[in-house]
Amino acid sequence: MSMSRKLGAEFIGTFWLVLGGCGSAVLAAAFPEVGIGLLGVALAFGLTVLTMAFAIGHISGCHLNPAVSVGLLVGGRFPAAELAPYVVAQVLGGIAGAAVLYVIASGQPGFETAGFASNGFGAHSPGGYSLLAALVCEVVMTFMFLLIILGATDQRAPAALAPVAIGLGLTLVHLISIPVTNTSVNPARSTGVALFEGGWAISQLWLFWVAPIVGAALAGVCYRWLGASDD
Q1: What DSSP designation does 26 have?
Q2: 4-58: pLDDT as tens digits
Q3: What residues correspond to the site Selectivity filter (predicted)?
Q4: Residue 117: which CATH number?
Q5: What is the reported pTM?
């Protein structure tokens, strides 16, 4: 598969992740009387990854996330030469998804960004959780998400079920951590919406790059041992 097609798939997939996941939080989570709530938002993020894994997994691997690319690199599943182009495509896709979401959301009278599904800690955590709590949460949640990805895509695992396991894994991650950080585990997702929220969201964005990448790298190291063949 050519690099241009891989990068195009990553751009489109991350665009859909941000538009679908963050869009559910901005447009539908608290909609009067029929809002989808926390469970609906968690499912929306999981469903975006599940659907795109079936749609583009055979093209680019469907990373949609710089942390996933790093975790797969450390785990020996992804070439180092492709890391930077993948990350750029993912971040641009995330920004494009956030831009479309902003255009849609701003069409409502009296629109205010009101966080715009950005990730935060302290006063900007949905539950008021501290920097340390947010750091630990994002590292651990990304670690577990990458273990799911690495295990589900292992050549010894049932290949057809990998997208289901990964999508449900991301849903569970969101169910646990939305109250803490609004759930990142994905620097591209965090960057896209933070640029439109501005201010505090940009000043806290560093955490949602550092923590997911650390968690993903640790998972890559762990799975090299955990999934090693005894032969």
Answers
A1: I
A2: 999 999 999 999 999 999 999 999 988 877 788 999 999 999 999 999 999 999 9
A3: 45, 174, 183, 189
A4: 1.20.1080.10
A5: 0.94
